[in-house]
Amino acid sequence: MNCPKFSGGVILNIDFNSVTFPFLERATEEENFSRETLYPFVDQYLGTHVKALAFNTFCQCSATPSKVWSDYEDLYNRKIENGIAVDYTEDYKGLYRCYKVHGVDPFEVWIDRCREKGLEAWLSLRMNDCHEPRAETFFARSDFFYEAKEKGWMNGILPGHGLHYHYTYNYAVPEVRKKMLDYIEEQLDMYDVDALELDFSRELICFKYMECDDKVEIMNDFIRNVKKIVTSAEEKHSHRIKIAVRLARDIDQCKIFGFDADTWNEECLVDCIIPTPRYFTCDTDMPINVWKERCKNIEIGAGIEMNFCVQNNKSDISAASRNKAKITSDVANGMAAAYVCEGADVAYLYNFFLNPYTDPSDSRTKNIFDMINRVGKDETIFSTRRRQIIMYQEREITPFGIEPYHPLPLEIARGDSASLSVPVGFVPSDKKVRIILGFSHSDPNFKDAPNDIELKINGKPCRDLVVCDEETLDSLRSYHGDSYVSRDVTLYSCDIPAESLSRYTAEFNAKRDVVVEYMEIDIQ
Q1: Which of 63, 94, 234, 410 has the smallest CB count inside 10 Å?
Q2: How many CA atoms lie within 13 A of 68 on its CB side?
């Protein structure tokens, strides 16, 4: 295959409280504070591959002024919540000072600055966030949470999904839909943005989906109403406003939850869909090609999350929550390469954001800057190092009764054969390529994988597996640490030919019981 031409750039989601609030807390303490004091929040991304900043302004309450939902000022002034004394002034003091002391709307400043500097400014709304649902109080919780809970407007217990999803709003309830539509209309009247993002990945559970037969019709009607609101805002602001929707990996699984991308495509209701992992792990094999084939009228973004989980029990999500680390630019670059080759129009980074007050030598900051200078253009994606790793789909955002994509660990009984493949995208012929495999054994004292299996890579025998040297192990630890491959797993590697294949496949013929725990194609 030929190197695909890609200059789609990067859309970066800017989190509500993790970075916006800390930045404003520092900025509003500056002696000569002005609108210009806020510019670095945008300017730090200039000259990178970032093409759009999606400002998250709604989580469970509004970070912007609102008469529809509880907003930052309501939370700043709140003294009693759920019958308990609270004080959230520290949480909101930077935002409060910006609006109320200095008289500056930071989001308006950032939107204007984006436009001045040639970036798109998006308004990103989490459509059903459920952080800390069982806590008696929570700093970001709106009054509507308690009203909905009292009136039974939440989804409650759903088989196959964690307790936190019990407190998601039920979009089958007209009052819930009206609340969100009124907020969207209010915010688009207030802010002149280039795109509205409906972030349904926070959370995908918007119905009692196993018993709500008309969920697809309800959600389609909701999206049609959003389209009408956006069309009206376009007339007011005299330019096009895109509608983007963040969903999960699989187009048909999304429909089971109520999200009908086929109809949205047919009726041209949305402009961009971003399949994205949720949180616990990246998903390195999302079927972006299927989205592209069925949504020809819609731009498809490839969502990359920050957390990296490889080895965990297939049925126990808690194992993943205990064993997660942050991906590096090499790992993100690997995902970008695979998804670009499947037709992705743009790279989308979620939970990657920067605070200009942070020391630029900070390892996380350096990693993110490296990432946003690599994953948005073909010349950097395919010319720099990338690691193509098998990760998986989270079980909790898989519809009940559907087996998630979860190829590891792969158990192979003596005498049996099995295979694993990982998407790699385009591999230039001059690249150094190696495979890294991790094995565990039913006999913990026996760790000699080359004698346990017959191995073929892309159909060719591979007899050169050796235990990873310290340099290789150090490079692995740089992004997942010792906890990711437990002590009963041995890592092996060997060099393999660079081949022009979209996927690299390992075939195993087991001479004794063996478990494959890890697979990576390292392209340098």
Answers
A1: 234
A2: 21
